[in-house]
Amino acid sequence: MRATYLYEAGDVRVQDAPDPVIEEPTDAIVRVLRSCVCGSDLHPYHSLTAADGPVPMGHEFLGTVEETGSEVSGLQRGDLVVAPFAYACNTCEFCRSGLHTSCPKGGFFAAGIGGAQAEAVRVPQARGTLVKLPNDVDEKLLPSLLTLADVYGTGYHAAHQARITPGDSVTVIGDGAVGLLAVLSAKQLGAERIILMGRHKTRTDLGRAFGATDVIAERGNEGVAKVRDLTGGHGTRAVLEAVGHMPAYEMAVGAVRPGGVISRVGVPQYEDAPIGFGSLFGPNITLTGGPAPVRAYIDRLLPAVLDGTVDPGRVFDRTLALEQTPDGYRAMGQREALKVLLTP
Amino acid sequence: MRATYLYEAGDVRVQDAPDPVIEEPTDAIVRVLRSCVCGSDLHPYHSLTAADGPVPMGHEFLGTVEETGSEVSGLQRGDLVVAPFAYACNTCEFCRSGLHTSCPKGGFFAAGIGGAQAEAVRVPQARGTLVKLPNDVDEKLLPSLLTLADVYGTGYHAAHQARITPGDSVTVIGDGAVGLLAVLSAKQLGAERIILMGRHKTRTDLGRAFGATDVIAERGNEGVAKVRDLTGGHGTRAVLEAVGHMPAYEMAVGAVRPGGVISRVGVPQYEDAPIGFGSLFGPNITLTGGPAPVRAYIDRLLPAVLDGTVDPGRVFDRTLALEQTPDGYRAMGQREALKVLLTP
């Protein structure tokens, strides 16, 4: 098959690779119908050293089941399925509590198991991981269904962990696909005031379409001052942080109301940060978030995607064939494209 | 009147001071019946420089109303009242949401306004701050009622912010008065497994009486390993951190289960700490807590104190007269006493 590998920063190649095969009786092989490039793929795209490459790329996909291991029930050849970016058993105590990212049998696609920017993928723990979609689904829905693999579930995780309730006030930091879908998720959970912090007008316009009531282009102290101006001086009860860099964390601390919640889904590019009396403790701020257990949210989010109530697939603004994947990385790396959809 | 001042580390004096007077129409003057020394008083007792002294001491008291300002309704001379350590209006949006420590009209007793280790105290925002107690209350209940001013409400805040529910598993770090009352609070909220980390047997014995199911004397990695041994390798869902030093935070990170909550009420003696992928983010740990808005909890906690269901006053293991306050600091500083009650 053809599959995508990152050799080192900036060097993405689509090349021949062995067809994936069933290795464990709990595996399935899925033929990829749609995959995409993630904002988090850009971290290694910008920093991987040649010594650490090549690594298989891509962790978001939907496709059809091609083969199942002997212990995989409930799935058969030809089923249309979507996979969360983390595979998991869906039966252990962590999965039952909705924390599939901590499943002892679980792990991640791409570098962990085989990339999804490819023609086919081996899926461990297939029964727990794969979610069946209607086989007759309209092809136009495929981009939105694909967002259930990561970015929609991740944006939803941010809002869910912040315990957004009707009437709430929320700041979303970051206008990438996850930030925009955090806006959509906050709106679905009833947030009344949704302030989106982002600088790319085409993106923040989509954020407004998803439910943002205000957009702030300024960053740092200036951005924080704008949030406070809009909220009677106190900030919003929740801040959803979808970037992961320290300045975004500092803005979150500045924009959150005393007693409020900072919910992070941008992977932190730092380890130590201020959490003492002068930042989180004094004003009783709660810090939450982490890698999204998107498997826990797919069943909940699927109906509104299928019936067209929401259209999270609007985050895809470019579609390329698998062979053009390197150009997709380039376009996203240069912020020409928000998110690139890949077809076989 | 007589009042307590800290001149510098180790130098506590009880001396003559001006009687407090009504300064604002929202003030009341309370004659102190019982006050006490707090673990947090030991921080300046160990570190205050002569240049920063003298400062009035004490923020926990109950007593009788002696005089009220012209705008204070609902209180009259002779009423028995208890005050939270932070005064507040109890009517603004922060107070209504239970965050009295962020009240714009609020502040703290002791260094902020006048100490409670004294014969009388001026209470700002008296109508919002003071909570009436039955005037005929049994004198034996006064120590337990006094804990509502801080340590019981603070321990309860830790458990409340961790959203303890029936059947929960909890680790409490610290066997001071707040840690022990965090045990009691977790028990009241239905926790099934309560692991108390502390090294002083008389204190941890009281912790067992309050509901601790296990006691761990070890610290650091050794202590964390013990918690994991007791919990199938994963740690407890909640960790209540009642110390405030970095090693306690590190133990909390080690002892909390993936997807769990660290709730801090020990005032952090650090500003930066690990919160990245390797500590909080990867396992989706929530960090919460702060200065306790004890005013929000007094009404809830009072009935079980009055009817004797709980006896949080057991944290007082020594009673001294106000004039002996310096000896109370010495005894607590040397860990001879857990918590010292002061009588006029």
From TrEMBL, chains A, B:
<feature type="domain" description="Alcohol dehydrogenase-like C-terminal">
    <location>
        <begin position="177"/>
        <end position="289"/>
    </location>
</feature>
<dbReference type="GO" id="GO:0046872">
    <property type="term" value="F:metal ion binding"/>
</dbReference>
<dbReference type="Pfam" id="PF00107">
    <property type="entry name" value="ADH_zinc_N"/>
</dbReference>
<feature type="domain" description="Alcohol dehydrogenase-like N-terminal">
    <location>
        <begin position="25"/>
        <end position="134"/>
    </location>
</feature>
<dbReference type="Pfam" id="PF08240">
    <property type="entry name" value="ADH_N"/>
</dbReference>
<protein>
    <submittedName>
        <fullName>IMP dehydrogenase</fullName>
    </submittedName>
</protein>
<dbReference type="InterPro" id="IPR013149">
    <property type="entry name" value="ADH-like_C"/>
</dbReference>
<keyword id="KW-0479">Metal-binding</keyword>
<dbReference type="InterPro" id="IPR036291">
    <property type="entry name" value="NAD(P)-bd_dom_sf"/>
</dbReference>
<dbReference type="InterPro" id="IPR013154">
    <property type="entry name" value="ADH-like_N"/>
</dbReference>
<dbReference type="InterPro" id="IPR011032">
    <property type="entry name" value="GroES-like_sf"/>
</dbReference>
<keyword id="KW-0862">Zinc</keyword>
